[in-house]
Amino acid sequence: MDHAAALVEQNDLFADLLGDADLATPVPTCPGWDLTQLMRHVGRGHRWAAAMVEARAVDIIDPRTVAGGKPPADGAVAWLRESPALLLDAVAVDPDAPVWTFTGPRPAHWWVRRRLYEAVVHRVDAALALGTGYTVEPALAADGVSEWLGLLAARPDGTALRDGATLHLHATDGGLGSDGEWTVRGGPGGITWDHGHGKGDTAVRAAAADLLLALLRRLPADDGSLEIVGDDGLWTGWLANTAF
Predict the structure, then answer these.
(1) Which one of 38, 56, 118, 185 is least enclosed by Cβ atoms within 10 Å?
(2) pLDDT-based confidence at residue 197 (cuts at 50, 70, 90)
(3) Strand residues in the chain grouped as ranges (E)
(4) In what order do the strands lie in the sheet with 166-171?
């Protein structure tokens, strides 16, 4: 997948939603935020990642110190549209340069994929707030599930799944192959996961987009789009313990 092109596309779709919207509209899936705050969060996040890549930062940079980190009073949506280019330009200088991330030093291009899924999920947040439809293509959503599991696996935390427990996720979309299945295993120091068909203590089947949104708590744990087989408590416990 071309994560850079997808980032620009998803960010543009997000900006399209905001173009004629009342930016004071509350965002139910981000309690306490309105669309202005959601837009600032995404645009500043892109610019913050760009600043860290450009500086080859070994420690976190305070997002509040990033130049241009607030949208202007006029042209806020244009500011959002311009934000990914700053990151992509910074990464292009040396995509493999190590920089700070939430999961330890990673190649600069790591941030492109991370910011892509920030744009995807917050685009959905905006669509839900505005009561409009949205589509997340299966291959994109499946890659988003993998990216999210990768973040969680890099976190030394044994609370997501009890030691020895297994959670199997299965995307029902056609054509994804092994990329649409994930087996997650709990251990004393955190989780591990891999692709492929298997059985788990709990299995969750749904379209890839619904799996992604459920994992990120944009859908209720018992949403009708999800088929849950096995230990319901393991699934709800997973969701309760995997906020990032």
Answers:
(1) 56
(2) confident
(3) 98-99, 106-107, 166-171, 181-187, 190-195, 202-206, 227-230
(4) 190-195, 181-187, 166-171, 202-206, 227-230
Average pLDDT over the chain reads: 95
Classify residue 174 as exposed, middle or buried by CB count within 10 Å of its CB (0-12, 13-18, 19+): exposed
The two structure tokens encoding residue 51: 């600043």
Looking at the chain, how many residues does it have? 244
CB atoms closer than 10 angstroms to residue 232: 12
Q: Decide: helix, strand or coil at residue 134.
A: coil
- 69/121 Cα distance (integer angstroms): 20
Tell me if 141 is assigned to some domain: no
Task: Judge if 7 and 120 occupy the same domain.
Answer: yes
Residue 226 is part of which domain span? 147-240
CB 236 within 8 A of CB 228: no
Q: Based on the fold, state whether residues 206 and 112 are members of the same structural domain.
A: no
Per-residue pLDDT tens for 54-84? Answer: 999 999 999 999 989 989 988 999 999 999 9
Alpha-carbon distances of 132 from 8, 174, 212, 214, 242, rounded to whole Å: 21, 26, 19, 19, 28
CA dihedral angle for residue 225, residue 231, residue 236, residue 237, rounded to 10 degrees: -150
- CA 88 to each of CA 23, 69, 93, 230: distance values in angstroms, whole numbers, following the listed order: 27, 16, 9, 43
Distance CA 84, CA 202 (A): 38
